[in-house]
Fold this sequence. Notes:
By secondary structure, the protein is α+β, with helices and mostly antiparallel strands.
Amino acid sequence: MTFEQELGIRCDVAGRPHALAFLGCCDLNYGQRCALPLHPFRLRVPEGALAGLLDAPFNSFIQTCREDDLQYEESDLPELKDAGYPGITAMLGGHRPLLAGMLLDFMIGDLLAAIGRASGYRAPDARYWGDVATADRRAYFTINQVHTVSFADGHAVFEGEGYYGVYVIWLTQ
């Protein structure tokens, strides 16, 4: 049984299944114009799996928001403050529009990293700074932008566009 079958997570790119271990997103310049051809994607994550994948980064994000709100007079996410800084399970239960916005704006990288780890991908460890031999050369689909996050049929559904390519880290020595 594969990870996709076990947790029920599925990603389709241009209508075709795509392996979760080879799915990533732009860390910098997320959602910017891209010179490569863009393809639509749809990622479906069961709500039950979502909480398990995001508990730690979600709780850390909530704690940071709580501390920032105490320190500053104005909250960046007043809806989160008004809701009482609920955990992800409580958000699924009663604050889905807020959760969808948070996933779209703040948590997509964390989600994709968690899916990658859970599906068996392990990045090689560099022996030293600029170690080209350990650069990640796997061919994969990079999410350039998520346009919508919605909830349907017990799943969080992420839709947007991205590109195929080979991820190579160019480092200088």
